[in-house]
Amino acid sequence: MLDVLDKSKKILEEYALCDRCLGRQFSNLATGTTNKERGASIKLVLAMNSTLEKEQINIELLQNLSKTGAIFAKKTLKKIGCIPKETQKCYLCEGKLDELEDLVQKIVKAINEYEFESFLIGNVLDNSLYIKENKIKDKFGLHGTEYLKQEFNREIGKKINEITKKKTDFNTPEIIIECNPFSSKILEIKIRSVYIYGRYNKYVRTIPQTHWDCRNCKGKGCEKCNFTGKNYAESVEELMAKPVLELTKGEKAVLHGSGREDIDVRMLGSGRPFVLEVKKPKIRNIDLKKLEEQINKEANNKIKVNNLRISSKKEVIKLKTKSQQSTKIYKAIVEFENLVSDETIKKIEENLKDKTLNQKTPTRVKHRRADIIRKKRVYEVRCKRIDEKHVEAIITCEGGTYVKELISGDEGRTEPSFTEIAENKAECVELDVLEIKEQ
Ligand SMILES: [Zn+2]
Ligand SMILES: [Zn+2]
C-alpha cells in the first residue's frame, strides 16, 4: 500500500493541486489541523526528500511542486540552475478557495438587512467538478475524505462568522445562503419563517378565516371582485397579517388554524388556537404583547387575539391533528319548519347523547373536499326553547363535526340529525363556537 507521500507524489505528477486541495485528499488523517496545513506539509516533505542525495536531485518532482506554487521548490530549482515551471491554477478549485473575499462581502451585504442568530452556507458547484474530484479519489484510493463543496462551505462560513459573529447551524439555521463560489454569486437567500402561536376570537359573521381568491379571476383581479382578487374584503388572516408584517417587515403572513369556522359563525370563548407564519421576516425578535395590542386595536372588535407566543413549524403540523381530536362546544339557533313539541326537544337530546354520526361530505363543500363518510362523535345536546319553532341548542361534539348538517341532516347525508329525529325539517340559522378544548 502506498503511503501519503507516495500517493501525493503520484497525484502531483498528473494534477497541479493547491495546498488546500491536496491536503483535503487526506482530510481523514491527523485531526486538529487544516487541509491547507496538511497540503503544505506534504509538499515540504516531498521537496526535502527530492533533495536528499545531492547527485540525484529529483528535478521532475520539484517541477511538479513548482507548478502548484510551492516557493521552496522554485527556490531549490533556481539554486541548482534550473528554471522553475510557472504556477498553474489549481486543477480543482482554480484558486477560488483563496479568493473568497468578494463573495463574502456580497453575502454580508445581502444578509445585513435581516435579523438572525444562526446561518448556513450552501453552494452549488458545476457537476464537472464532482467528476474531476471523484476521478482523483478513485484513482488513488482516497475514500471517505472531504469534498471541495464541503471546504467551500466551511471556509465561507468561517469568514461570515468572523464578520457577523453569528454561528453556523446545520439543523435549523435562520438564514441559508446558497452561492456559487466560482462565479462569486449569491444564488438564493432563504429566510426561516417566524411562527407565532395564539388563540383568536371572531365576533362578526361576515369574515372568513383566511383570504379567498376570487373564483372568477383566481386572484388576478377582475370586475366581479372590484379588482381586489379576493372574495371578501377582509379575513381573520389579513387582520392579523397587517400588524405582524409591519413589525417583522416580513413578506407574507399565513394563518394556520386548528380547524376553521364558516364565515357566518362566530368564534367565542377562549378562542381558536392558531399559528401565524411570517414568511421572510427581517425582524425576528418582536414584542408579542405589542403585536397583540396592535392586532386587537386595528381589528376594531371584529377579531381579538390572545396568549401569543413564539412557535414552530412542528406545531403547525400538530395543530392540524389536534384539531380533529379536540372537543368543541357550539351554540346553535335552530329553526323548525313546523311547531316543535317539548317531547320532540327531549327526544333530540336523548337520541344524540354519546352518539356516533355518519357524515357524508356536506353538499355545500363537496366541490372542494373529497366525498367520504366521516364518523364523528356527539357527546351532548342541550336544548332551550326560544319560541314555537325556534330552539337554542348547546352542542358538545368532536372536532371536525359539521354542525349545520347535524341539524339539517343535509338530505340524509348526515345521520342521525335534528331533522330526522324530530321528523320536522330543522335548519341552523345562527351558529357560534363557544369553546375549543384541546387534549
Ligand atoms: Zn485547490
Ligand atoms: Zn376577481
From TrEMBL:
Q: Report which superkingdom the organism of origin falls in.
A: Archaea
Question: Does Isomerase count among this protein's keywords?
Answer: yes
Reaction(s) catalysed by this chain's protein: uridine(54) in tRNA = pseudouridine(54) in tRNA; uridine(55) in tRNA = pseudouridine(55) in tRNA
Per the Swiss-Prot or TrEMBL record, the active site comprises D262 (nucleophile)
GO MF annotation list: tRNA binding; tRNA pseudouridine(55) synthase activity
Alphabetized UniProt keyword annotations:
Isomerase, RNA-binding, tRNA processing
Q: Where is the Pus10 THUMP domain?
A: 104-179
Q: What GO terms in the biological process aspect are recorded for it?
A: tRNA pseudouridine synthesis
- Which residues does substrate bind? Y330, Y402
Matching entries from InterPro entries are given as: PsdUridine_synth_cat_dom_sf (IPR020103), Pus10 (IPR005912), Pus10-like (IPR039894), Pus10-like_C (IPR048741), Pus10_THUMP_arc (IPR055174)
Q: Provide the Pus10-like C-terminal domain boundaries.
A: 195-436
Top-level EC class as recorded in UniProt: isomerase
EC number per UniProt: 5.4.99.25
According to its UniProt entry, what is the function of this protein? Answer: Responsible for synthesis of pseudouridine from uracil-54 and uracil-55 in the psi GC loop of transfer RNAs.
Protein family (similarity comment): Belongs to the pseudouridine synthase Pus10 family.
Q: What is this protein called?
A: tRNA pseudouridine synthase Pus10
Provide the species name: Candidatus Heimdallarchaeum aukensis
* Name of the coding gene: pus10
